[in-house]
Automatic annotation (TrEMBL):
InterPro entries associated with the record: Selenoprotein_S
Gene3D superfamilies to which the protein is assigned, alphabetical: 6.10.250.2950
Organism listed in the record: Chloropsis hardwickii
Subcellular location per the Swiss-Prot or TrEMBL entry: Cytoplasm; Endoplasmic reticulum membrane
The organism's place on the tree of life at top rank: Eukaryota
GO biological process, one term: endoplasmic reticulum unfolded protein response
Membrane spanning residue stretches: 32-50
Annotated protein name in UniProt: SELS protein
Membrane topology recorded in Swiss-Prot or TrEMBL: Single-pass membrane protein
The keyword Metal-binding appears for this protein: no
Primary location class: cytoplasm
Length: 185
């Protein structure tokens, strides 16, 4: 087979002569010598990527079954919709319970405010009244009760402590800064 005769059976496009084939070999050789390692690494990366994608598609659950049995897909979707509906109903019930609890708390706050207002109108201390309402203590017992005094606590510092004197401070003593211009510059 002669590459240089230029017949129609030589291939698509213009016939390659001896010079054209050498130019093609030279071009391909220079590209491979310049970028050969990059092309090899790119080919390996593409091969590994194709293998990973084909494995993930084959391992996908129900991918092959869905094409074969549409009834399975329909049942799965119905089960999913039923589960979503149950979850939504549970969420709605929780929201109702929360709203009811909030209404009860708001009603209790309103009652406390009314009680506080009434006690203020009567000239009583509203704080003491609120404490009595919360603890549910009889009003007669609270009027005769004497408040407890706190136990005697030792003061943190002695009576003769003066922070400006510089005594008793230990290692923490304040000294005024140097006078005159700053040392920088």
């Amino acid at each position: 087979m002669d590459l240089g005769d230029g017949g129609a059976a030589a291939g698509p496009g213009p016939a390659l002569g001896r010079g054209g084939l050498e130019a093609l070999q030279h071009t391909v050789g220079s590209v491979l010598s310049s970028y050969g390692w990059f092309l090899l690494l790119a080919a390996v990366a593409v091969y590994l990527l194709v293998q990973k994608v084909s494995r993930s598609l084959a391992a996908r659950p129900g991918a092959a079954e869905a094409a074969e049995e549409p009834d399975v897909v329909v049942r799965r979707q119905e089960a999913l919709a039923a589960a979503r509906l149950r979850m939504q109903e549970e969420l709605n019930a929780q929201a109702e319970r929360y709203k009811e609890k909030q209404r009860q708390l708001e009603e209790e706050r309103r009652r406390q405010k009314i009680a506080m207002w009434e006690s203020m109108q009567e000239g009583k201390s509203y704080k003491g009244n609120l404490k009595l309402n919360q603890q549910e203590v009889e009003p007669g017992a609270s009027a005769s009760a004497v408040p407890k005094s706190k136990p005697n606590k030792k003061p943190l510092r002695g009576g003769g402590y003066n922070p400006l004197s510089g005594e008793g401070g230990g290692t923490c003593s304040w000294r005024p800064g140097r006078r005159g211009p700053s040392a920088g510059g």
